[in-house]
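Question (not urgent): is this output format expected?
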Amino acid sequence: YLYVDDSFGFAPESSVRPYAPYSKSLPGPLVAILTLWDSLGIPHEEKKQLFGLVLPVIGFEVDPNLMKVQMSLDSRTLLLDHLQSFACKGARRSLRDFQRLAGYLNWALNVYPMLRPGLSALYAKTAGKTLQGALLWVNRDIVRELQWFASHVASLEGVFFLSSESWD
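Got this back:
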């Protein structure tokens, strides 16, 4: 078996050529690899063959030309809604809910790495606990940190892979 998870590459717009099995045009290097796979009998799916100026990768928008990754507007809105509904002082949530939120926020840290301190109270609250159904209080520190996290997510664009500096 051959398994290729993700493969990325650059190609100029002028390299686009027709790919008959999908009845559409694709970048030349992609057509070449698909044609090779066809000749070897390696299956592939049309919906997985993406190309464009911005590509979706694990729920983020990746712009290889700007060297930037950001959350889509829909993803960001869902995250902010989730944070707002969770951050209610005095509410009780299950340990499982706390852990799911921590996982969700860890995913967001791929785009907002500088917001890591916003998880401190959440981790402190769940440390050493193992009963998934146990109810935990949402305290003032958690509310404050989640609101801080949300305010930054709402105003930040994403992360650039490289930053340029001008040399005089």
